[in-house]
# Entry
Amino acid sequence: MSTEVEIRLNGERYQVPVGSTVSDLVRRLKLAEDRVAVELDRRIVRRPEWPAVTLQPGAAVEIVQVVGGG
# Structure
């Protein structure tokens, strides 16, 4: 049995451990949780939902970082 699943992260193949959640992915990428927006299979995932949303094989994940400036 495989210990990883393949997802599409911003259009590229990416491996995550089986059972990974959106929160796990954001932490694994070392992104600031308050500075990113996550879309999973064309649906925005609200930050409070991240710990409960498990990434399935073939999931399409788009992560956008918010950049401040002036």
